[in-house]
Amino acid sequence: MTSSGATHHAGPRPGLVRPVRIDPNGELGPTRSETQGRHWRRTSRGWYVPAHVEASDVEQRILEAGPVVPVGSAVTGWAALRWMGGRWFSGTSRTGAQRPVEIAVGTHHVRHQAGIFIREENAAPHRVLEVDGLPVTDASWSLSHEMRYADDLAAAVVAADMAAYDDLVSTVEIDACLTPRQNAWTGVPLARDAVGWSEENSWSPTETLMRLAWVRDGQLPPPLCNVPVFDLQGRHLATPDLFDPVAGVAAEYDGAVHLMASNRHRDVRRTGGLVSAGIVSVTMMAPDLRNTRRFVADLEGAYATAARLPVAGRRWTVEQPAWWVPTDTVERRRSLTAGERRRLLGYRARAA
């Protein structure tokens, strides 16, 4: 069987290829001698894909872990969330290194393999789903796992926010999943703490980190996430990343995506609209994520400036006109029709 035989083992999604076992006849998989050559790549013990299949593709990596999953066990954590549609779960760490696909195996004895981490935690049968041929723990359980084993509070909050971004798990659902029966489980206090800091309308991990810098490092009032701001005639002015409507202070994150010419022009116009309406706006840059002192100082300055502006002179409001369709919660987004989702949430496909 040559590498072209992979067409017979197409994965459950376009561009993905299922691993196959050695076949002495070379019909359903490579022969043993073929696996020693350059046309095949081993994915786990006894399983192979053609060498041209991209090993770094995140969903291909998840699929390649499938043969290792014992009956009754499941892929969990970030990989399960990604497989179920969580676009921000990239499978990479903060340093850019690939994270292993985690498998919850319960009482099964399965050895770790390259790119795969075995977690000896049992998920109840009703928590295991089959999605496109791959067993995964349901979204709430997967998020609970991701939050409990997060590196720190910020990472756990980012996980909760990004699961909500794609409407996989609401705040209420993850809170209910972290039941009192899990008190003795690893990381439950961290996960519960993170739920209290999470929001359902953050549009990117960097927005979440900026919000945490605002409230945790700056000790300032919690801002609203992506709340639309209108002029006094009901026209939409802008939707700042973060906004304190009491103080009249907004913040925007200016990262690599925003620095593209078209996005930069749009962001400048948006900030200009906020300023002309009487809102004081600050910007967080990528280096501020590593050291938030400059951003916090800018925020404190913005609050001081905004306090000197007369409230009567404000030419903006967050009161939504009748024509506006709010999409700020998981529940509201889930209630949208397919057409409404394409029209109102199309920016998400472009952003993630």
Description:
The chain is of the alpha+beta class. The chain folds into 3 domains: 51 residues, no CATH class; 138 residues, no CATH class; 109 residues, Endonuclease, Chain A, CATH 3.40.960. It contains 13 helices and 14 strands. It has a 4-stranded mixed β-sheet, sandwiched between helices. It has a 3-stranded antiparallel β-sheet with strand order 1-3-2, with no helix packed on it. A 3-stranded mixed β-sheet has the order 4-5-6. The two termini are 38 Å apart. The N terminus is likely disordered.
Short account of what is shown:
This protein is an alpha+beta fold and 352 residues long. It is 34% helix and 15% strand. It folds into 3 domains: 3-53, no CATH class; 60-197, no CATH class; 205-313, Endonuclease, Chain A (3-Layer(aba) Sandwich), CATH 3.40.960.
Secondary-structure blueprint of this entry?
Elements: E1 20-21, H1 32-35, E2 40-44, E3 47-50, H2 58-65, E4 74-76, H3 77-83, E5 101-104, E6 116-119, E7 128-131, E8 134-137, H4 139-148, H5 153-165, H6 171-177, H7 188-197, H8 205-217, E9 224-225, E10 229-230, E11 236-238, E12 242-244, E13 249-254, H9 261-276, E14 280-285, H10 293-307, H11 330-334, H12 338-344, H13 346-351
Parallel strand pairs: 5-6, 13-14
Antiparallel strand pairs: 1-3, 2-3, 4-5, 7-8, 9-12, 10-11, 12-13
Helix pairs in contact: 3-4, 4-5, 5-7, 5-8
Features:
alpha+beta; four-stranded mixed beta sheet; three-stranded antiparallel beta sheet; disordered N terminus
